[in-house]
Amino acid sequence: MSGSNDIGDVLRRLETTIASRKGASADSSYTASLLAGGAQKCAKKFGEEAVEAALAAVSGDKSHLTAEAADVLYHLIVMLAQQDVSLNDVADALAAREGRSGHDEKASRKT
Ligand SMILES: N=c1c2ncn([C@@H]3O[C@H](COP(=O)(O)OP(=O)(O)OP(=O)(O)O)[C@@H](O)[C@H]3O)c2ncn1[C@@H]1O[C@H](COP(=O)(O)O)[C@@H](O)[C@H]1O
């Protein structure tokens, strides 16, 4: 571990590490092995981890859910990196939604 546990700092460090694995040897780096598999491999692993997190949530085991959520975030950032989408891009999308209820957004799509 190097640096703070602040969620923003951790995610930014992880994104930097993941980006550094582009073009690295798949034998030495798990991230590189995912990236080498392209969009399908990255999306498949992300989907699997998301389902595992959902099952952990239903089980009520908080420490299991926490571990699975970490897997989800790691695999999400790998999938985004493979598509050249940054966490800043995602932050911009979330910030643009701030203050608008999901109910209101959904209703606006029906009109
Ligand atoms: N945060 C993670 C991280 N979280 C989960 N994982 C890996 O994600 C995989 C989860 O997949 P599974 O549970 O399905 O395990 P598996 O069956 O072995 O996986 P598959 O063979 O099916 O792909 C495991 O191999 C975990 O080790 C991670 N691998 C790497 N990181 C970070 O990425 C950095 C770079 O890692 P490398 O690219 O391997 O150098 C590391 O220092 C970490 O900070």
Automatic annotation (TrEMBL):
Major place of residence: cytoplasm
Any one GO molecular-function label of the UniProt entry: phosphoribosyl-ATP diphosphatase activity
CDD domains found in the cross-reference section: NTP-PPase_HisIE_like (cd11534)
Pathways involved: Amino-acid biosynthesis; L-histidine biosynthesis; L-histidine from 5-phospho-alpha-D-ribose 1-diphosphate: step 2/9
EC number in record: 3.6.1.31
Catalytic activity: 1-(5-phospho-beta-D-ribosyl)-ATP + H2O = 1-(5-phospho-beta-D-ribosyl)-5'-AMP + diphosphate + H(+)
Record SUPFAM superfamilies: all-alpha NTP pyrophosphatases (SSF101386)
Subcellular location: Cytoplasm
Swiss-Prot/TrEMBL keywords: Amino-acid biosynthesis, ATP-binding, Cytoplasm, Histidine biosynthesis, Hydrolase, Nucleotide-binding
Family from the record: Belongs to the PRA-PH family.
Protein name: Phosphoribosyl-ATP pyrophosphatase
Organism: Hyphococcus aureus
Name of the coding gene: hisE
